[in-house]
Structure formats: structure tokens, C-alpha cells
Amino acid sequence: MLTPDTAHGTNPATVTMAGLEVVKVATNPDGGVDVDDLRAKADSDVACLMLTNPNTLGLFDPNITEIAEIVHSVGATLYYDGANLNAVMGISRPGDMGFDIVHFNLHKSFTQPHGGGGPGSGPIAVSDRVAPFLPVPVVSRDEQAGSFDLDFGRGLAGSKTIGRLRGFHGNYGCFVRSYAYICSLGADGLKDASETAVLNANYLLALLKRKGVVEYLPLAYGELCLHEFVLSGGPMKRALQIKTLDLAKRLLDFGFHPPTVYFPLLVEEALMVEPTETETKETLDAFAEAIAAILAEAAEDPQIAQNAPYSTPVRRLDEATAAKRPVIRQTL
After folding, report:
1. Is the pTM above the cut of 0.70?
2. CA 51 – CA 4 distance, rounded (Å)
3. Would you list the domain boundaries of the chain?
4. Hey, which residues does 232 pair with through a beta bridge?
5. What is the pLDDT of residues 149-187, one digit of tens each?
6. Is the peptide bond before 309 cis (omega within 30 degrees of 0)?
7. Was domain 2-179 assigned CATH 3.40.50.300?
8. The domain at 187-322 falls in which architecture?
9. Residue 26 DSSP code
10. CB 103 within 8 A of CB 123
């Protein structure tokens, strides 16, 4: 199973759980899939390429049709991780890019709450190429009667279905909530949500550039972004003696939940910023001001950020020890 080196850890984790071998595909200087590396690794042993487009660097891969052709030429399947659909709803379609399977992260683009252990759910859509393998039963619609029913016909002799699943297909309540959200926005509303998310991300990126933040936190790849962007804190660490983790902890004192840090792994001291479509201009302005203030503060005294946070109920934890030797208590 092929995955790009920018992939979220859940991708290789899922592959391992399925008993397959993970093979990483390199990233080119522009932040997309290294097509030459993909071509060298795509052979008859490859079952699938798992890909996000736009990727975790916030960039749309312009070589996506060529990537699809390479994968399909060896009989493999192209799988779409829908984590970044928030950038392209109503603008581009995974099926047109050549993807065979798409999973939708309802907590990413369709209002389902994220964190706290769930609930979560990821409905899956497939192309005609994969449809014969779907498990049974499937929901079918009688167009004349306008009614729905469960179709077990795929389980008949000669079908390629994988059969009936023992477990359930997901959290039904999540589907209903997300479906209501989609219906309330409509096609134009979903497109507007994506366009606003992309606008917010590029507005914030431009703000940070104007405030001189890029001297210490340069954009890792590209010049513009889609709904998110990844900064590299390497220069900040060397010049100001504070790490990305220190910056994230200090942001808590400014009233901001910090962005994702240290992912994707190929970016030194990575800081992934994803404003989403719901953030106001005032919040984005304040966030940029906070970043600039922390950097200015670190230039005078880096220990302030190194020992942050100060205003939270719990101060900085020893995260390395907690990961290696967790103290677990059972409460009744």
C-alpha cells in the first residue's frame, strides 16, 4: 500500500491493521507527489495508493490525473482521504480526478463534533469500478414509487460483493446531522464554505507575511495555499531558541487553541494552520498579532515561551514521560 510521506498517521496505521505493507512515496520540491518516485514504486504488488488532495501541506496536486493513470496502470486502486474536502466542496470532485474510493471526514467538513473520543463517522463513496464489491445490503431507490429499500441482490451468485458485514456501517446520528447541514447549505452554500475557508487561510498567511513572521516561520511549500498552510519553525528555533511546541503553549496564554504541531513530519518544526470558514476577520487579526507578539517577546526572553503556559488550569506537562510511562487510573 502506497502513502505519501505527507500522509496523516492514520493512513499507515490503517494499512498496518489490514495486514498490508506500507511504502512511502516522496514529495517533490513543489509539495506534491513525486511522480518519478511513484512510477518507480508502482508495480503489480501494489494494492492501493492512499492520497489526500489537496494534501496536508494545503496544496492541490496538479499532477493528479497522471498519478491516477500510474496507479490504475498496475491494476491498483486510488483511495481518497477526504480530510481536506473543506477546500474543494463544489469546486472539484474526487471522481473526476480518478479516485475509486472516497471517505468523508464528517468532523472536518460537515459539522460533526471532533475530539473527546467521538462520536465520529466516515461514510464512503465508490466509483463504478469498485461498486460491485460493496457489502450487502445496500440502500436502493424505486424511482417510480419514490421509496427506499434494502437490496440484497448483490449477494447472489456471481456477484463480487465482499458479503455482509458483521458490524454496523457507522454512527447513524452523525449521518443525519451532516445530511441536514448539507441540505441547509445546498450546493452553492457548500461551495461558499470552501471558498471562505480558502480565503481565510490565505488572508491569515498574508497577514503573517506582512508582520514579518515569515523570517522565523516561513511557509514550508508553495506561495499560496488552499484551506490550510504549514509553516516551518526551524529558523525560529535557531534564531530565538524557542521550538514550535513553545510557541503553541504560549498561544494558550493569548486565548488561542494552538494549531497542529510537528505534522506533517517532513517539515522541520511544523506548524499547521487551518482557520476554517467560520473564523471572523477579527479572530484572524488577533491570531496574527499574537504570533508576532510571541516572537518579539522571545527575542527579548525566550524562557517566557519555554515555560508557558501560565494562565491555564494545568501548567506544562512532561509529555515525553507521559507517553513513555502513562499513569492510568480506573474510576468507577
Report:
1. yes
2. 7
3. 2-179, 187-322
4. 270
5. 988 877 665 578 888 877 666 678 888 899 999 999 999
6. yes
7. no
8. Alpha-Beta Complex (3.90)
9. P
10. yes
